[in-house]
Amino acid sequence: MFSINHFIWIFICFVLVVLGYICFSKDNPSFKKIVDIAFYFALISELIKIFSVIEMVPIDGKDGLYPYLELRYLPLHLCSLHILSFIYLKFSKKDSAFKTWLLSFMYPSCILGGILAILLPSIFSTSVSVNEAFTHPLAYQTFLYHTMLILFGIYISKSKEVNLTKDGFRKSIISICLLSFLSLYLNSIFTIPVYENGKLVSVATTTNFFFTSLAPLPIPFSSKLHWFIYLFVICIIAFGLIYLLYLPIIKRDRHG
């Protein structure tokens, strides 16, 4: 993280976002066309991720190998969940209250989630070495997929076919709170507990969906209080950043 290769990727993603924004401004593509592009991009991206990280491992007591995808690659992070959002947008035929809610949430979550994933890519500490930043398919998948999310979020804010309102801020806060709370269950479900004499002593093979269980930076927790403080801090940061993105829309609605 924050190596020369990482900075090169940050620069590439920045250039792609700028070029994408220029294309939006000049060509004014339809919402349907952008959704189609995002849908196929997300689908191909997920296939690349799966087939580049899936491992063939031995089966206990049996001959042969078994294809296994480690838990951390499940599409349960915020950005990965938007694959389902693109599927819904692609195949939903009519506007609905849910679609309005979803786009209101995708606007900040795609932009902020994409930026944070590019600035703090977990792959360099879990999956890919820094030296493989331009040789491993997962690196391309990670940076290009999140660049696409940023562009999609920007498009939502600029498109005349999407009517964002100040109420989207409330919807976004409710959505991120519900999903983050759900991630606490998911992280516990996919974590393997270690017991001694019937007492929980540690955990193994942890997951960290939504980064609610562990910090994205190497900051260990030594007590429940430290974890509560961490949750409070990331909540304040998330609320503040979402508010900043919605501030122009809030001001527009207030002044008619």
Question: What is the element layout, followed by pairings?
Answer:
Blueprint (H helix, E strand, L loop, with lengths): L3 H24 L3 H23 L1 E4 L6 E4 L9 H14 L5 H23 L3 H4 L10 H22 L8 H23 L2 E5 L2 E6 L19 H31 L2
Antiparallel strand pairs: 1-2, 3-4
Helix content: 55-70%
Q: How far do the termini sit from each other?
A: 45 Å
The main sheet orders its strands as 1-2
Number of strands: 4
Residue runs with pLDDT of under 50 for 5 or more positions: none
Measured by DSSP, the beta-strand proportion falls in 5-15%
SSE arrangement, N to C: HHEEHHHHHEEH
Estimated radius of gyration = 20 Å
Shape: globular
Sketch the major β-sheet: 2 strands, antiparallel
Helix segment tally:
8
Mean pLDDT: 93
Q: Which structural class best describes the helix and strand composition?
A: mainly alpha
Report on this structure.
With 256 residues, the protein is mainly alpha-helical. Helix content is 64%, strand content 7%. It contains 8 helices and 4 strands, in the order H-H-E-E-H-H-H-H-H-E-E-H. The chain has a two-stranded antiparallel ribbon with strand order 1-2. Strands 3-4 form a two-stranded antiparallel sheet. A hairpin with a 6-residue loop joins strand 1 (55-58) and strand 2. The chain starts with a helix and ends with a helix. The mean pLDDT is 93.
List keywords for this structure.
256 residues; mainly alpha; two-stranded antiparallel sheet; 8 helices; globular
